[in-house]
Structures are given as structure tokens and as C-alpha cells.
UniProtKB/TrEMBL annotation:
Organism whose genome encodes this protein: Methanosarcina spelaei
PANTHER family associated with the record: ABC TRANSPORTER PERMEASE, ABC-2 TYPE TRANSPORT SYSTEM PERMEASE PROTEIN
UniProt keyword Transport, yes or no: no
Transmembrane parts of this sequence: 21-42, 84-104, 137-159, 165-189, 201-222, 327-345
Domain of life: Archaea
GO molecular function annotations of the record: ABC-type transporter activity
Any GO CC annotation of this UniProt entry: plasma membrane
Keyword check for Transmembrane helix: yes
Assigned keywords, A-Z: Membrane, Transmembrane, Transmembrane helix
Lineage of source species: Archaea, Methanobacteriati, Methanobacteriota, Stenosarchaea group, Methanomicrobia
Name this protein carries in UniProt: ABC transporter permease
Length: 351
């Protein structure tokens, strides 16, 4: 691989993407959504923080007329950035698809690919150059998003700690890997397609399948494997032979159970686990959302306590380690797409 030639192709791809009106439109919508999410998240965080502070004061001076004052301390990253997870999962994936759908098919339609390959270039140089150039766009996009979000927080009077900045940085790294996954999938379909129209159609079909259809499919499979009766939650009768009883354990945990069988709560736990497993195996978006939410603190918001920075780093390391399977599963799609792109492009007859 000639690094200089790859750099030239990457630079061209980078600036060509920036000049694209379609990309700029999606990019503008993406940044606007990120900005709105930041402002709404910060306002929500300030409200939750006020509630928490009031509850602390009332707990120190209890009032007999007080109904409920025990509010958990909000975690800044979990409240402010959680909405961004959804936006990146949807709009970010669309942005990556738009970047990659005509990477190869567009060159075929314009007749430029044959001209490019007439130069002393290896085919892998072309693929690598296009790949790195478009990755640069994704990194720039998320870097601008991070700067805007942090700037909004500072302007609105929110103090960011070192652990918050670490969480934001890791969140953006995971987001970059997620967008690269859909970029690679889009470039793969661009390689195997004869036109940009077919490429973008296949890319969006994969996106819809992996984000929407798989959710319904996994739900149907889970229902078939672990049947449950929702009427148990509304006080209805399950059948003429089975009845529902409420069981309170010694530790105060309440479970709905069918006489002679496992509790309805346990059945729902099994069903949720099956559904989540199926979605995680197929959907890059599902894996991304789980990892990103854990990094931002949604998995352990109420368990975090004030501690030194080294302890926060240990907690974050343990979080990443616990979600490593999700990260690997998400990246499998990127690796498969990259290998497929190389194999197909190397064997294609370019006319």
C-alpha cells in the first residue's frame, strides 16, 4: 500500500464530501438536533438537580406534610447526553450511509473508476483512500458535536468534572465506531451495486431491517418461547384453572405468580432477555445504544457516589469491560463489510 497515494485519495474524498449538498443538508439537520438535545438535556438536568437539592434540605428538616422528597442525585452525562444516543443511532446512521452509498458506484456511473485505475494504483489504495477520507468526515462531525455540547453546558452554567469529560470522550469514540460500521456497510453495497440508487436502497433496507423489523421479529420469537398473559397485570383471570397470586418476599419484593408455576415477573425477565439477545446479535444500533447508555451512566446512575477521579476511571473501565461483547458484535458488521468490499472490488471487471 502506497501511503502517499492513499492520502491523496483520502484528501479528495474528504473535500468532495464537504462540498456535497446532500451531505451538508443531513449534516446541518444532525447538528441542529444535537444542539436542541443538549439544551433540553441541560434544562432537564438543572430541574432534576434542583429537586435533588430540595429533597436533601427537606430530609434534614422533615415535614410531616411532606409526601415524597427522596430524589436521586442526577448524573450530568446520563441526563444531558442520553437523547443524543437516539439521534446518533438514527440520524448518524443516515449520515454515514449518505457518505458511503456512492463511494464506488458513483465513480462507475461517472466513468471515473476506469480512469482512476489506469494510474499506477493498487485497488486496495482506492478503497483505503475513500474509507479514510470519509472517516475523517465522521470524526470532524462528532468533534464539532462534542464542542457544541460542552460549550452549551458551560454557557448554561453547568460544571463539567474530569469524569464527565472522560465519559463524553468515550461516548464519542463509541459513536465514531458505530458510524464507521454503517459507513462500511454503505461502501460495501456501493461496491456490489451498479448504480448509486441501488446502493442507497440496499443500505437503507439493511438499516430498517436491523433497527425496526428486527425489534418486531425478536418480540414475536420471545413471545413464542415464553408465553405470558398481560391480564395478570390488570387483575384479570388467566384461565379457569390458573389463578394469579401476589407474593411478597422477606426483602419486600413483590411478584405476580401463577399457582403451580414461575412468577409472571420471571417470565417477563426471560422474554426480555431473549428479545435483547436476538437484537444484539443482529442490530448494530441496539449494541451501540447499550454501550453508549452504560458509558453515560444510565446503568449505574443511582449507585455512583462521590469519589476521587481514579475510582471513576476504574468504574468506567469496568463498564467498558462489561459491554465488550456488544462492542465486538457491533464491529463484526464493519469487519465483514470491509472484507467483503476488498474481495468484491479486487475481482470486479471495471469497464
Amino acid at each position: 500500500m502506497n501511503n502517499n497515494k492513499v492520502a491523496v485519495i483520502a484528501k479528495k474524498e474528504f473535500f468532495d464530501s464537504i462540498k456535497s449538498k446532500t451531505f451538508l443538508t443531513i449534516f446541518g439537520i444532525f447538528l441542529l438536533l444535537m444542539l436542541v438535545s443538549s439544551v433540553m438535556g441541560i434544562n432537564n438536568y438543572n430541574k432534576q438537580l434542583d429537586q435533588y437539592q430540595k429533597s436533601q434540605v427537606e430530609n434534614q428538616n422533615p415535614d410531616k406534610n411532606s409526601v415524597f422528597t427522596d430524589f436521586p442525585e442526577p448524573k450530568l452525562t446520563a441526563v444531558v447526553f442520553q437523547e443524543m444516543v437516539t439521534n446518533i443511532g438514527v440520524i448518524g446512521a443516515i449520515l454515514a450511509i449518505i457518505l458511503g452509498y456512492n463511494a464506488v458506484s458513483g465513480e462507475k456511473e461517472r466513468g471515473n473508476l476506469k480512469l482512476i485505475l489506469s494510474y499506477p494504483l493498487y485497488r486496495e489504495d482506492v478503497v483505503n483512500g475513500k474509507f479514510f477520507g470519509k472517516i475523517g468526515i465522521l470524526i470532524l462531525t462528532l468533534a464539532i458535536t462534542s464542542i457544541l455540547s460542552i460549550a452549551c453546558a458551560l454557557v448554561m452554567g453547568v460544571n463539567l468534572t474530569g469524569s464527565d469529560l472522560i465519559a463524553i470522550a468515550l461516548f464519542m469514540v463509541i459513536s465514531t465506531l458505530y458510524l464507521i460500521t454503517f459507513l462500511e456497510i454503505s461502501i460495501f453495497f456501493s461496491t456490489v451495486s451498479k448504480s448509486g440508487t441501488s446502493s442507497i436502497l440496499y443500505s437503507f433496507m439493511f438499516w430498517i431491517l436491523s433497527t425496526m423489523i428486527i425489534t418486531s421479529f425478536s418480540g414475536v420469537v420471545a413471545d413464542a418461547m415464553v408465553p405470558t398473559d398481560d391480564t395478570a397485570f390488570y387483575g384479570g383471570k388467566i384461565s379457569s384453572t390458573n389463578s394469579v397470586s401476589i407474593v411478597v418476599s422477606d426483602n419486600g419484593e413483590t411478584n405476580l405468580s401463577e399457582d403451580g408455576g414461575e412468577s409472571t415477573f420471571e417470565k417477563y425477565q426471560k422474554k426480555w432477555k431473549i428479545q435483547n439477545t436476538i437484537e444484539s446479535l443482529i442490530s448494530p444500533t441496539q449494541n451501540y445504544e447499550q454501550v453508549a447508555s452504560a458509558i453515560l451512566g444510565n446503568d449505574f446512575v443511582n449507585s455512583l457516589t462521590e469519589s476521587d477521579s481514579s475510582q471513576n476511571e476504574i468504574d468506567m473501565f469496568e463498564t467498558i469491560s462489561g459491554k465488550m461483547s456488544n462492542i465486538i458484535t457491533m464491529l463484526v458488521w464493519a469487519i465483514i463489510s470491509l472484507v467483503g468490499t476488498y474481495v468484491v472490488f479486487m475481482r470486479q471487471d471495471i469497464r
